[in-house]
Amino acid sequence: MLAAHVQELRRGTVVVAALGILREPTYGYALLEQLEQAGFRVDGNTLYPLLRRLEKQQLLTSEWNTEESRPRKFYRVAPAGEALLTALLEEWRSLDTSIEKLR
């Protein structure tokens, strides 16, 4: 039962974490690794649709790098994504403060 609630809680935090990491251009697999190292276990089948959705919402931009032997699509946070990240972090801090008051 706890696992389901933890998964629900983490679902929205992956967006915040990804936007934060993508301040620097990063390709999908490297993003998966960075999220994992930070404690966010995300499956590629979850991350790649998320990246496409954020790009469609103009929160991310992408660019193909074909200079290496394997072409890679690099993502980077767009100005609208940076603004969203700032707002989400402010909301996160506000929620944390409110929850602490309840304890």
What this model shows, in words?
This protein has 103 residues and is of the alpha+beta class. The protein has a single domain, classed as Winged helix-like DNA-binding domain superfamily/Winged helix DNA-binding domain (Arc Repressor Mutant, subunit A, Orthogonal Bundle), CATH 1.10.10.10. It contains 4 helices and 3 strands. It has a 3-stranded antiparallel sheet.
Helices, strands, pairings?
Elements: H1 2-21, E1 26-27, H2 28-37, H3 44-56, E2 60-65, E3 72-77, H4 79-102
Antiparallel strand pairs: 1-3, 2-3
Low-confidence stretches: none
Shape descriptor reads: globular
CATH homology group: Winged helix-like DNA-binding domain superfamily/Winged helix DNA-binding domain
DSSP strand content = 5-15%
By CATH, the architecture is named Orthogonal Bundle
Q: How many distinct folded domains?
A: 1
Main sheet properties: 3 strands, antiparallel
The total of helices stands at: 4
Using the coordinates above, name the CATH class: Mainly Alpha
Q: Output the helix-strand order.
A: HEHHEEH
Secondary structure class reads alpha+beta
Distance between the termini: 22 Å
Walk across the major sheet and give the strand order: 1-3-2
CATH-defined fold name: Arc Repressor Mutant, subunit A
- Can you count the beta strands? 3
Q: What's the pLDDT, averaged over the residues? A: 93
Helicity level: 55-70%
